[in-house]
Specification:
Elements lengths: L3 H4 L32 E9 L11 E9 L10 E10 L6 H7 L1 E2 L3 E5 L3 H15 L1 H4 L6 E5 L14 H9 L18 E2 L2 E2 L1 E11 L2 E14 L11 H4 L21 E11 L5 H16 L9 E9 L32 H20 L4 E2 L5 E2 L4 H8 L3
Parallel strand pairs: 5-6, 11-12
Antiparallel strand pairs: 1-2, 2-5, 3-4, 3-12, 7-8, 9-10, 10-11, 13-14
């Protein structure tokens, strides 16, 4: 059954399915990462200034997105996790510990490249205030970034600690706004206005039905690469593409087509091993490639997958002399021979999430008058033969 959340965002923007695009697989009720039980998403969006100020003076087009794998109450309870870097021209803090332990136990922050430190500190402060027993040990928060310097005064200290706290405290399990919100506020994708995109798929195994959901922060791809349902949309659309002009940055420097980054967070309630979750993360590039990208040297493409199953396993904390542990830990998991349906769901979610980020969006003017056009719906309908 088609739900209104499949067609439009809570703030009224049209999503890809609302424009008439069809996709394989069955989404959850919100067609979002929040269809995975327990996962919350919150955003804090910062839009200030009229676009006429110079660099380091404004305007501001940025923000922060927070993803809570087990909600606020579950901060500190590990999730099995795995990650994959297609191209390392980017940052995801906490990644070494995920590789070492196969687990994740903090909220996940997404923001701009130069605000990673602030968001990292904000997550620690929230945990210290709200989960002091967790904060009594060590914290290695996961914060990832993409570069919004075309539209945003990226070197200004605009993302504050309170924006992080706001995003965590207001995070919810409902439908998600997409496009120019939270960490995706100032991002561009395929030479159009980009930002946040999300999607989900149901996966059946035996008598159980699980969900795979993804959230992307899209800031990648050259205009000529954009492909939708096999059609060369980027080359066919007639819209200004100032981001690929020689003049916007310096007299002798510009951002090459395809530069930027993309962060993907994959969530599932299926019981999966860390290595299996790494496998999901490795399938993210296949979904991105369906939309045309070949991956740029100047694009940081880093992907993280986690599972909310097996709560109470993979605990790594200081031992207690008063209550020493004596029982073995254990994990249940989908048999390796049945993992392909989860790979398929991941690829399908990623493709749709990219298109949601592009379609559920508006034109934006940012610093120094830089302009990023939204993907024009009327032209897209004409190119794809949509009603």
């Amino acid at each position: 059954m088609i739900t209104s959340a499949w067609l439009h965002t809570p703030d009224g923007h049209t999503r890809a399915r609302g424009l008439g695009l069809e996709f394989e697989g069955e989404p959850g009720p919100h067609n979002a990462i929040t269809d995975v039980p327990g996962v919350l998403v919150g955003t804090s969006t910062i839009i200030e200034g009229d676009g006429e100020h110079r660099y380091l003076e404004g305007p501001i087009r940025t923000g922060v997105t927070m993803i809570l794998p087990r909600g606020r109450e579950g901060v500190g309870v590990p999730c099995a996790a795995g990650l994959y870097s297609m191209n390392g021209n980017g940052e995801m803090t906490g990644s070494h510990w995920i590789k070492e332990s196969g687990s994740l136990s903090t909220p996940i922050g997404l923001t701009n490249t130069h605000a990673v430190g602030t968001v990292h500190r904000g997550i620690i402060d929230w945990i210290a205030s709200n989960r002091p027993n967790v904060a009594a040990q060590w914290q290695l928060p996961v914060v990832a970034e993409t570069w919004d310097g075309f539209l945003n005064d990226i070197n200004g200290v605009h993302v504050k600690r309170y924006h992080v706290l706001e995003a965590i405290d207001h995070a919810n399990a409902g439908p998600c706004n997409e496009g120019s919100v939270g960490g995706g506020t100032g991002m561009n994708c395929y030479g159009f206005k980009g930002g946040n995109g999300t999607a989900s798929r149901k996966v059946r195994f035996g008598s159980a039905t699980y969900t795979v959901g993804v959230h992307l922060q899209c800031n990648f791809g050259g205009r000529g690469e954009l492909t939708i349902k096999g059609a060369p949309v980027g080359r066919a659309v007639d819209a200004p593409c100032q981001i690929q002009s020689d003049e916007w940055f310096d007299a002798d420097r510009r951002v090459p087509p395809g530069a930027g980054s993309v962060i993907a967070i994959v969530a599932t309630d299926a019981p999966l091993l860390p290595q299996q979750l790494e496998g999901l993360a490795k399938r993210v590039p296949l979904g991105l490639a369906r939309t045309g990208t070949t991956g740029s040297h100047f694009s940081g493409d880093i992907f993280l997958a986690f599972s909310t199953a097996n709560a109470g396993s993979l605990i790594s904390e200081f031992p207690s002399a008063a209550n020493p542990r004596s029982e073995l830990d254990s994990l249940s998991f989908i048999p390796w021979g049945d993992i392909d349906s989860f790979y398929t769901a991941t690829v399908r979610c990623v493709e749709e999430a990219v298109l949601n980020a592009l379609i559920a969006n508006d034109d934006m003017t940012g610093r120094n008058g830089h302009f990023s056009p939204a993907l024009p719906h009327d032209q897209l309908r004409s190119i794809l033969g949509l009603p």
